[in-house]
Each structure stands twice: as structure tokens, then as C-alpha cells.
């Protein structure tokens, strides 16, 4: 068992990630605030995300102002509209730390305080905090329609925001509101007479309460989190009974099976990752975290089992999860269609919450590898390079004509959107990127081994002067794999540093204090003694281009190759290639030249592949086989997947036809 080094002073210096951090602090979060505050009409594309809002404006902050008595008006938006502000508040709270990196966060700080003040004003005397119900429904309807009410989801996100604000600022102002919220929930839910004995249709409160426990040390929040995990799926009639008793109903045209809500069976009995991907992943992350905090073996086993099922059978090469648009859900093993995929940005973000929790239980390179895959591919594809437009769905193959002409592909946008009716993804990206410093290290329980699991250049101070500075040579990671850990230990503490050897790096060289060493790779890490005053660990990873085949179980990828280099998955875009892209092909040993282009897409590695393009002697729709098709030589241009859709709109594909 290990502790996440959350309180560490981690200073990210990576060029790649500093750009993302600063972009988020300076562009994305201010833009999102303006969207939440109805200062900009938001571009909500048709069919981008389901919803009943239909408004050109978010209305999120206005709902809070109305509930706080600052403004007249009526509620507008999704039942969980408050969460857009809560997630923004969480992201912006982490972002305040960028002040240490010289950024001006004064305006952000003012908005953070304004948001907290609004939540404070909107909270009912009994701690209840959900403007949809406060403004639209009588008090006796509360917690009576949990299938779709999202009340605990909404309050959970506020609790998470409050914990973040407390961790960053030390102020208890938001945390006090959150504790009143938790008290209200604890009062209303449980096994006692008159209490509600069932879960919210959207998991989130479990993770939130576990975090509240970590922040406050109040054991009852951990027990309540465990209660919500255990009660889920024990009574399949629960939602129906609430409806029959006259509870409030939402989304009445949506008829989702109990599996969608992860309510068809107890989560601890589940063998496969099923249902709505974000619901399942938020819950699984909580099962992992609560399992560790309670040392509950059944929870720990469940968290491992579901993770293994996902990464072995239900995850795309980009880290995208959720193959199916219907119910934004997981489907079945090895069903990974590239053009019908859902791959919600929030699901990739949730995979990082989940992975982080698994690392806290037991650091393993295989888990950190998946987290890296998500970070550099599935997560970042969700945001435009300037931070102001977003994908909800992250396809591996896109075609504007198909999205326009085929309703089953209408969810695959080929331009990122300024906002969504259901705007869960933008601020989820924000809170992940601004808290990236919490994903770099895990420290063993005895404090002796520091696991450095991500190659994100940083300088971090641990206790008693023990410091790790990670630097990267050349074009820096993820473009160069030349990484040095400068470890300073002036007080001679008994310390070890464990460095991840990624599974994708076939070869690597490792030097300690200038001497080549061969150390065993245990659970994906090499462990170096760092008890001397200074230790220098120099790791050079194999960054050669890899052509990847999928398992023969994956029907969608048969006869195709993907291309990766380091942690980055590449794709073809029509703006660089003639199209249609399905005519292009490459062989497994195709010659690939690579170059770093600093002025393209904020600096990316570009691959030029000696491939070919199919040509037909006729234009007939169908024809008897007479003359063979021909392959003409063609140079294929590939860019990092995360950077697609930042230039002209067009086709995109990750998997490319394999030729001989
Ligand atoms: Zn989302």
C-alpha cells in the first residue's frame, strides 16, 4: 500500500505540459467561465450531446445566482447543470497554483471566490445544494427520483471542488459548505427508518466522499462512500419503486436498462466493464480508492478485475473507452469499431482517476503505461490546441460526409464544439490538466521508495530536502526519450527512486552516475538506490516508430496497421493526404522518416511513410474481377492523433490498410 504524494510541491517544467497548463489557465478556464456566465453565446452543435436545454447559453452561473437570491429568473439546463460550475471550480482551484510559475491568476481567483459565494448562498439550511431541485421542485421531491435526478452526482462534484480548493488554498470556506452537503446526504441516506436505501443513477458521490474523508479525516464520510458502493445493484426495483411512489422523473423518453446505471447487480460481483462508461469508471475509481482506504479485499479485487477487462478488451489504442453511442457505453469484449466509437473525453479522464487510485494501491508500470496512453492521446484529443473548443466523442476514424449523411454517425463531430448541452467534458479536461502534478509520483507507505511514473519534466521537493528534478534532452518528451532524474538527498535519507520502463520501449539504456547499469524490471519499474547526497539516473528510451497490429479478435482492425512512436499514436488527416484515406496503405516494414516541426500544431513530430494508394481501372460501382487493382506509390503524412482537427475539416483515420 502506498500514499499518493498529493501534498508535494511538484513544479512541472515540461515544455509540452507547461504549454497545456498555461493554455488551460490563461485561455480555457477564462473561456469556460465566460460560457458558464452567459457572456458568450455557445456553439452547441446539433446531435453533439443529448439534452433538453436547447438554449444558446449555459445558464449555469445564473441558476446559482437565482438560487442564492441575487437575481430573478427560472432554472434552465440539465438537472446537473451545477456540475459545470463545480468542475470549473475544481479546475480553477488547482490552477491557482500556477501563480508559483509566474502566471497572473488574480481574475481566476476572483471568479473562484465568486463561485464559492454563490454556492454558499444557494445552499439550503439543511445542507442541500442542487439548484435544479431548489428552483424547480418542492422540497418533498428531493432524493425521490434518483434514476435521473443526478442530485448526488451534482453534490459530489461540489464536494470534489471544495476538497481541491481546501488542498490548494488551505481555506475551509468551500469545505465547510461541502461538509454541510455531506451531512445532509448522511442524514437522508442509510439503512435506518425513513432513510433512502438506494444509490444515485450516476455514481460520483462515492469518489467525492472518499476524497472528503482524506481531506478532513472524518471516518463517517468514508463509511458513507462504502455504503453507497455496497447498496448499488442490491435492489433492482429501487428506481421503479421511486417512480411508482410519485418521485420526479426526467428524460422520460430515454429508456435505459439498469446496466446503464451500473445498478443491475452489485458492483463487487461484476465481471465485465458494462453500462455507461463514465458511470462505470467513476464508480470503479471509487471502489479502488475506498477498497484501499478500508483495506477491503473484495473491493480491491473488483477494481483490478474491471481494469484488466477494460485494458485487455475494451480500450482503443488511443485509450478511448466506450465503444457504443447508445447509452454512451461499453459494449462487449473486442468490439472496437473505429467509426462508431463513443470514447467520451470524460471517460478517458476517468481512466486517469481510476489508474491513479490503482497506483496508490500498488504501483505498476502497466497501469502507468495506460495512464500515459490516455494522457497523450485519448484525453488531449478532447481539446483544441488553444483550449476553447472540445470533443465529447473521440473517434479513430472520421469522415465529415458520413457524420452528415448517416444518423448513426452524427455523434462523430469533425469540428470541435464551443460548448455542449451536456457540457461535462470541457471542465473535466480542465481539472485533469491543472492537477497533472498529482499524477507523477507515488510514495511507498514506509516513505522509502518514490515511484516516478510519468515522463513529465518537473522539480519536486519531498521531505527533508529530498528532491527529484526530471529533465529531458533534445526536443523533450514526448518527442525525445532522453530523460535524466537528478536526485538530491542532502540528509542521506534511506531512499530509492523507482523509474518506469514503458512496455512500448523495446530497448533502453540506463546509467546511474554515468555508469551503465542493468537492473531488473520489477512490475514495470527499475529501482535505484538514492541514499547518496546526489544520484543521477539517465534513461534513454527507444523512440523508434512502431507499426502496431491489433489482436485478431478485433474485427474492426483486421488487415490494418496503426503507427506509434513513444507514447504518441499517430493518425492521417485529409489536410495532409489526398483522400479518401481508406485507399491509402502501408506495409509493416514501410520506410518512415520523422521530423520535429516546431511551427506546426504548436510543435509536433511528423511522420512521412512510404506507402501506396489503391487505384482501380474502372469507376463501376460493382464489376466482375478482371484487371487487378494497382497500388501506386504514395507518401503518407501522419501527425499525432491528439492534434487532429486543428486545421481544415476533413477525414481522419488512425488505422491504415496494411499492404504487402
Ligand atoms: Zn463528458
TrEMBL record:
GO molecular function: hydrolase activity
Record-linked Pfam families: Beta-AFase-like_GH127_cat, Glyco_hydro127C, Glyco_hydro127M
Residue ranges constituting the Non-reducing end beta-L-arabinofuranosidase-like GH127 middle domain according to the UniProt record: 449-543
Record carries keyword Hydrolase: yes
Annotated Non-reducing end beta-L-arabinofuranosidase-like GH127 C-terminal domain residues: 545-657
Non-reducing end beta-L-arabinofuranosidase-like GH127 catalytic domain ranges (all copies): 9-437
Keyword Transcription regulation annotated: no
Keywords: Hydrolase
PANTHER family: DUF1680 DOMAIN PROTEIN (AFU_ORTHOLOGUE AFUA_1G08910)
Protein name (database record): Glycoside hydrolase family 127 protein
Amino acid at each position: 500500500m502506498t500514499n499518493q504524494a498529493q501534498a508535494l510541491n511538484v513544479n512541472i517544467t515540461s515544455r509540452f505540459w507547461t504549454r497545456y497548463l498555461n493554455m488551460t489557465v490563461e485561455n480555457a478556464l477564462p473561456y469556460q467561465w465566460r460560457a458558464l456566465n452567459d457572456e458568450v453565446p455557445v456553439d452547441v452543435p446539433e446531435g453533439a450531446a443529448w439534452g433538453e436545454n436547447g438554449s444558446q447559453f449555459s445558464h449555469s452561473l445564473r441558476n446559482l445566482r437565482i438560487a442564492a437570491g441575487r437575481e430573478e429568473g427560472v432554472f434552465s439546463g440539465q438537472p446537473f447543470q451545477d456540475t459545470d460550475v463545480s468542475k470549473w471550480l475544481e479546475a480553477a482551484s488547482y490552477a491557482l497554483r500556477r501563480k508559483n510559475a509566474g502566471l497572473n491568476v488574480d481574475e481566476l481567483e476572483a471568479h473562484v471566490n465568486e463561485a464559492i459565494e454563490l454556492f454558499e448562498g444557494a445552499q439550503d439550511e439543511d445542507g442541500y445544494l442542487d439548484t435544479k431541485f431548489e428552483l424547480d421542485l418542492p422540497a418533498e421531491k428531493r432524493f425521490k427520483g434518483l434514476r435521473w435526478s443526478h442530485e448526488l452526482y451534482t453534490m459530489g462534484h461540489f464536494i470534489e471542488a471544495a476538497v481541491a480548493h481546501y488542498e490548494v488554498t488551505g481555506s475551509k470556506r468551500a469545505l465547510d459548505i461541502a461538509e454541510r452537503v455531506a451531512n445532509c446526504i448522511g442524514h437522508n441516506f442509510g439503512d435506518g427508518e425513513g432513510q433512502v436505501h438506494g444509490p444515485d443513477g450516476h455514481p460520483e458521490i462515492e469518489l467525492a466522499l472518499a476524497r472528503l474523508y482524506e481531506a478532513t479525516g472524518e471516518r463517517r464520510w468514508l463509511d458513507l462512500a462504502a455504503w453507497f458502493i455496497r447498496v448499488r445493484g442490491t435492489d433492482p426495483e429501487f428506481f421503479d419503486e421511486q417512480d411508482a411512489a410519485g418521485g420526479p422523473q426526467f428524460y422520460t423518453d430515454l429508456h435505459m436498462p439498469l446496466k446503464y446505471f451500473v445498478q443491475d447487480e452489485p458492483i463487487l460481483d461484476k465481471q465485465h466493464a458494462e453500462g455507461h462508461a463514465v458511470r462505470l469508471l467513476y464508480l470503479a475509481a471509487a471502489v479502488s480508492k475506498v477498497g484501499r482506504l478500508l483495506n477491503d479485499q473484495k473491493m480491491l479485487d473488483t477494481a483490478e478485475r474491471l481494469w484488466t477487462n477494460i485494458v485487455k478488451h475494451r480500450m482503443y489504442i488511443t485509450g478511448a473507452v466506450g465503444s457504443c453511442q447508445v447509452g454512451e457505453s461499453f459494449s462487449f469484449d473486442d468490439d472496437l469499431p473505429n467509426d462508431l466509437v463513443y470514447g467520451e473525453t470524460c471517460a478517458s479522464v476517468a481512466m486517469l482517476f481510476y489508474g491513479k487510485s490503482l497506483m496508490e494501491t500498488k504501483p505498476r508500470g502497466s497501469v502507468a503505461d495506460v495512464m500515459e496512453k490516455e494522457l497523450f492521446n485519448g484525453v488531449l484529443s478532447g481539446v483544441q490546441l488553444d483550449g476553447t473548443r472540445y470533443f465529447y466523442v473521440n473517434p479513430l476514424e472520421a469522415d465529415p460526409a458520413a457524420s452528415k449523411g448517416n444518423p448513426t454517425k452524427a455523434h462523430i463531430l469533425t469540428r470541435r464544439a464551443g460548448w455542449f448541452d451536456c457540457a461535462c467534458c470541457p471542465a473535466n479536461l480542465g481539472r485533469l490538466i491543472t492537477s497533472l502534478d498529482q499524477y507523477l509520483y507515488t510514495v511507498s507507505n514506509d516513505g522509502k521508495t518514490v515511484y516516478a511514473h510519468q515522463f513529465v519534466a518537473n522539480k519536486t521537493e519531498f521531505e527533508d530536502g529530498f528532491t527529484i528534478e526530471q529533465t529531458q534532452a533534445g526536443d523533450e518528451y514526448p518527442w525525445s526519450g532522453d530523460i535524466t532524474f537528478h536526485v538530491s538527498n542532502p540528509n542521506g535519507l534511506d531512499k530509492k527512486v523507482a523509474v518506469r520502463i514503458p512496455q512500448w520501449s523495446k530497448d533502453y539504456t540506463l546509467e546511474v552516475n554515468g555508469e551503465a547499469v542493468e537492473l531488473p524490471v520489477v512490475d514495470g519499474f527499475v529501482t535505484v538506490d538514492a541514499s547518496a547526497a546526489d544520484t543521477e539516473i539517465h534513461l534513454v528510451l527507444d523512440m523508434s516508430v512502431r507499426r502496431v497490429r491489433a489482436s485478431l479478435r478485433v474485427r474492426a482492425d483486421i488487415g490494418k496497421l496503426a503507427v506509434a512512436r513513444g507514447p504518441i499514436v499517430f493518425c492521417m488527416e485529409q489536410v495532409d493526404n489526398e483522400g479518401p484515406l481508406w485507399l491509402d496503405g502501408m506495409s509493416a516494414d514501410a520506410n518512415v522518416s520523422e521530423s520535429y516541426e516546431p511551427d506546426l500544431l504548436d510543435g509536433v513530430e511528423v511522420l512521412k511513410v512510404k506507402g501506396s494508394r489503391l487505384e482501380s481501372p474502372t469507376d463501376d460501382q460493382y464489376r466482375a474481377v478482371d484487371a487487378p487493382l494497382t497500388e501506386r506509390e504514395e507518401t503518407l503524412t501522419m501527425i499525432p492523433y491528439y492534434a487532429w482537427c486543428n486545421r481544415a475539416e476533413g477525414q481522419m483515420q488512425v488505422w491504415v490498410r496494411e499492404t504487402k
